[in-house]
Amino acid sequence: MSSQLVVRKSEDRGYANHGWLDTHHTFSFASYYDYNFQGFGSLKVINEDIVQPTTGFGAHPHREFEIFSYIISGELQHKDSMGNVEILKAGDVQFTSAGTGITHSEYNIHPTLPVHFLQIWVKPDNPKLKPRYQTMTFSESSKTNNLIHIISPVEDHDNSTIGINTDFHMYASLLESGHKVIHTVQGTKKPRKVYIHLASTGGKLSVNENTILQQGDGVFVTEVKQGDEIVFESIGDKIAEFVVFDLA
Hints:
Layout (H helix, E strand, L loop, with lengths): L3 E5 L5 E4 L3 E5 L17 E9 L3 E8 L3 E8 L1 E6 L4 E5 L2 E6 L4 E7 L6 E8 L9 E6 L2 H4 L4 E6 L8 E3 L3 E8 L4 E5 L7 E7 L5 E4 L3 E4 L3 E7 L4 E6 L5 E8 L1
Parallel strand pairs: 13-14
Antiparallel strand pairs: 1-20, 2-3, 3-4, 4-11, 5-10, 6-9, 6-11, 7-8, 7-10, 9-12, 13-15, 15-22, 16-21, 17-20, 17-22, 18-19, 18-21
């Protein structure tokens, strides 16, 4: 495999601390703009957010995006214009096809503990979809020293994953020190690309042996095709929690 790997360092991301919200932006978002980082294929937003207790995002509209939250720790209350009300916890992935338009809010209603989560936006192939909501739980035990399939294209997903309306796959892992997992690149459309994000929880991860990620880092992987393998090893003294995005 002649893949190309380019690291996106944690400290190079967009950053804002609003008091109630501590947020890092992998790609241009809100007041952060960088011409060189405006998305990666259909992947347009990766925000790593920490929301303080009894605060959150008030009701606001979305349309024409697939929007999902990956909960790392704490609790996040979701409410939306479709009538969904849910408290999300670690291991939960909450997915919304915003389609023709929805309104939602996200609050940390816990009295003392912050909530830490990834907010991810993907452009679907068809932006005029009927809004849809789904939550699935992927347990800590299922992700420990394993790479779990979280999201897959609607045309070939089953009940074990969340379906998304484009050629896009997401995986997640909690990798203990010294353990390895392998990702096999999916999809038949060429070229493929992969983005890996290591959560800011203290882990350290090697990718294909020679690329090292510290907490909050990401890496762009290009020049890959279906069947290529990417090897991950946890090389720190803390669990490496990371997500993998595999897309056309």
